[in-house]
Q: What sequence folds into this?
């Protein structure tokens, strides 16, 4: 029996992880939300990790712009909190799957970032997440897995695809940026891959290290919005392209967030499907909960 611990279980990915891991035969899942466990509380983290085989950390500070206003608080969660989890896993003999981000890169590449490509965060959020990555690699060289994801969307919580569905019902046209390139990733599809990675890790088939948990292919936010409209039976011409400078934000966004997926082959696992295939599967579920 595999004993799983999910932290951040009330979030978008956390809720999908709870459903996916709970459906596995021979598994036992403990799902802890922020109200149940503060990952910066070392003694509480150690007690929570005890008795578990795999910890999946979906907890974190996700307010990218807010991190620019209070970097210390963001890093306390995304850096120091992850270190507390890694320390507890090291003491308890557990495997840790740490969810990270494309924001650890500068976003100035012209080809997909490899798992071992040099990092260079543009802002506070990326710096904090990178600190968490480094803690996992340092403290858990044999049992630490960093899974970087990007452009995540799903049924639970706010996200770009859900926002497009909501705005489509209220506006005739939408202006969406067409100068940022990435890989829209369905949180449920990522949860399935994380489950497979955790099982492969326990079986000794997956080497510790960095994996890129993003969809295959690439598209801009504008292209994604048009696909949401098209696959929902709406007129994609209602979506118009614009540039990022029309929507100034406190935190700089990477212009290029395309990640390579060579790491999955090391574990004998397939990378996530193409972004459009994922979107087509996810949209009926999102429409059911988002559209009046």
A:
């Amino acid at each position: 029996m595999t004993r799983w611990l999910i932290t951040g279980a009330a979030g978008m990915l956390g809720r999908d992880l709870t459903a996916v891991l709970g459906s596995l035969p021979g598994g036992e899942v403990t799902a802890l939300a922020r109200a149940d466990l503060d990952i910066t509380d070392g003694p509480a983290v150690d007690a929570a990790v005890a008795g578990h085989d795999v910890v999946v950390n979906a907890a974190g500070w996700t307010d990218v712009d807010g991190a620019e206003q209070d970097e210390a608080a963001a890093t306390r969660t995304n850096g120091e909190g992850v270190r507390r989890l890694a320390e507890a896993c090291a003491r308890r003999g557990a495997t840790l799957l740490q969810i990270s981000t494309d924001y650890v890169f500068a976003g100035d590449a012209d080809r997909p970032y490899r798992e071992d490509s040099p990092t260079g965060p543009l802002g506070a959020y990326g710096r904090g997440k990178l600190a968490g990555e480094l803690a996992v690699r340092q403290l858990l060289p044999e049992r630490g897995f960093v899974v970087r994801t990007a452009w995540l969307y799903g049924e639970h919580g706010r996200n770009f695809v859900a926002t497009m569905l909501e705005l489509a019902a209220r506006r005739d046209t939408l202006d969406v940026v067409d100068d940022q390139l990435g890989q829209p990733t369905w949180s449920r599809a990522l949860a399935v891959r994380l489950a497979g990675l955790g099982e492969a890790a326990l079986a000794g088939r997956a080497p510790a290290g960095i994996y890129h948990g993003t969809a295959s292919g690439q598209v801009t936010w504008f292209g994604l919005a048009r696909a949401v409209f098209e696959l929902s039976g709406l007129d994609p011409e209602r979506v118009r392209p614009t540039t990022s400078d029309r929507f100034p934000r406190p935190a700089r966004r990477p212009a290029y967030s395309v990640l390579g997926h060579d790491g999955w082959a090391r574990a004998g696992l397939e990378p996530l499907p193409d972004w459009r295939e994922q979107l087509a599967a996810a949209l009926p579920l999102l429409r059911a909960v988002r559209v009046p």
Summary: The chain has a mean pLDDT of 96. The CA atoms of residues 113 and 259 lie 5 Å apart. The chain has ten helices and twelve strands. The chain has one domain: 2-158+184-216+258-272.
